[in-house]
Prior knowledge:
The protein is α+β, with helices and mostly antiparallel strands. The chain has helices at 13-16, 29-40, 64-70, 75-84, 88-97, 100-108, 117-126, 130-142; strands spanning 2-4, 9-11, 25-26, 44-47, 54-57, 72-74, 111-113.
Amino acid sequence: xxxxxxxxxxxxxxxxxxxxxxxxxxxxxxxxxxxxxxxxxxxxxxxxxxxxxxxxxxxxxxxxxxxxxxxxxxxxxxxxxxxxxxxxxxxxxxxxxxxxxxxxxxxxxxxxxxxxxxxxxxxxxxxxxxxxxxxxxxxxxxxxx
Length: 145
């Protein structure tokens, strides 16, 4: 079994018939199994910068901005979550005062994205902190159909 740092991939000569990257280094079956087990456990396989040998490392922690960028929830779940925390009337009062585009978004959107201008402006109008918005999306996504 061989490992290539340039492709971050493994190559079995019986499959690749000797056509492997030039930087490939040989590893044992036991090393390969250990690396795959670590990967299953949440670690990532990277190349040692000096030897090119594969090593396990912990993934970089997610930044809150990355987490927030991926947050979204179905609109009906957001509505139900707002009802549960007692803020639905507050939000709907702000929507009623807003422009037509905002009202259309509230009434017709299927999904709300955490960092969309719509969500951010509505949250600001309601005085919600970033953490409270995060909590709302987490609650909404915990709601079962």
